[in-house]
Design goal:
0% strand; single chain; mainly alpha
């Protein structure tokens, strides 16, 4: 949906949909892991991945009615509250859920326009979230580099810490792109 403003081109939106949906599927795989630390936030990450995939659908394919966005924000808000409740869940999940609520409410305020700002420029909150996710992506990317040299034991897909890092990094990139186009 966010790439509606690119004239004649829906492929960036589809790439973002595929990236987010793949992260949702990986979150579901992690939920089946035998390691408790892998399962802890996997359901929330799966929900966020699928939610972002829906938000990223090109407007030519699917434009939900404006009344769906407050419901979307409520579900994402429930995820944010659960994140606060669950011990060990970092503030990154809370910021991500809050960013999704913000984007859903912006889309509800201006259906079909894909901007929540009107003609007043980019709001401070959009900039703050954008800068947070750019910093998160850069920090996560640097932290991922040493993991490439680690030994590759035969473990299940749900128990691979380097894939968790890649999943979170790609979701951070997707969130950054979505904020830029908001």
């Amino acid at each position: 949906m966010y790439f509606h403003m690119l004239p004649g081109s829906a492929w960036p939106g589809w790439l973002l949909v595929a990236l987010c949906a793949a992260n949702g599927v990986y979150g579901l795989l992690r939920m089946r892991s035998n390691a408790a630390e892998q399962r802890r936030g996997a359901g929330d990450e799966a929900l966020m991945g699928f939610g972002m995939a829906v938000m990223a659908l090109p407007a030519t394919v699917f434009t939900p009615p404006s009344w769906t966005w407050p419901g979307y924000a409520a579900v994402t808000g429930a995820v944010a509250l659960r994140t606060l409740w669950v011990a060990g869940a970092g503030t990154h999940h809370l910021v991500g859920a809050s960013a999704m609520i913000y984007m859903a409410m912006a889309m509800a305020a201006s259906p079909g326009q894909h901007t929540g700002h009107g003609g007043a420029g980019v709001p401070l909150l959009t900039w703050a979230l954008f800068l947070y996710f750019v910093g998160y992506v850069l920090h996560s990317g640097v932290r991922l580099l040493p993991a490439a040299a680690a030994s590759s034991r035969a473990v299940g897909w749900g128990n691979r810490p380097e894939l968790v890092k890649v999943s979170r990094l790609s979701m951070g990139i997707a969130m950054t792109v979505m904020l830029v186009t908001l």
